[in-house]
Amino acid sequence: MNWQKIIWLALSLFVAQFTIGFLEGLLSSPRSGVSAFLIGKAASLVVCSVLFGCFAARNPIRTLAHAWLALLFQVLAATLFSATLSHWLDEAPRVFVVAEWAVLVAALGIGTWFGSIFVSRMAELADA
Questions:
Q1: What pLDDT does residue 86 have?
Q2: DSSP string spanning 25-94?
């Protein structure tokens, strides 16, 4: 296990999720409703997929295990961060938390798949 890369990916995911969530809260109005929610989740899916893809392309050994550990660390850090800020913030409905989990798991799958395909294509081109 490459713990340095796992921690780096977890921190990158945390910063990306924090930034997207902050911008989503800052730029959305109470009237924006579902559209702001969907735009935020789409942005999260794209950004986190790219992060997982870059990680998978650079770390071809046990990529999925490393990515899952990074996701676990990111969720733990986000949960602790959210718990410390719970005094100042409203509690998010469970649907939002479940949706964010679904987006992160989908990003892990999509990004890791694309990163692995990229590595295998590069290996094929190098062999040719």
A1: 72
A2: HHH--TTTHHHHHHHHHHHHHHHHHHHHHHHHHH--SSHHHHHHHHHHHHHHHHHHHHHHHTTTSPPPPH
Q: Cα–Cα–Cα angle for 62, 53, 7, nearest 5°?
A: 60
Token output for 49: 């997929």
Separation between Cα atoms, residue 8 and residue 71, nearest integer Å: 11
Residue written as tokens 């899952």?
68
Q: Is 6 exposed, middle or buried (0-12, 13-18, 19+ CB in 10 A)?
A: buried
Provide the 8-state DSSP code for 2.
Answer: -
Whole-number Å distance between alpha carbons of 118 and 25: 35
For the residues of 83-127, what is the DSSP string, one character each?
HHHTTTSPPPPHHHHHHHHHHHHHHHHHHHHHHHHHHHHHHHHHH
Which residue did the predictor score with more confidence, 91 or 108? 108
Question: pLDDT tens, 26-82?
Answer: 887 777 777 778 888 999 999 999 999 999 988 878 888 999 999 999 999 988 888
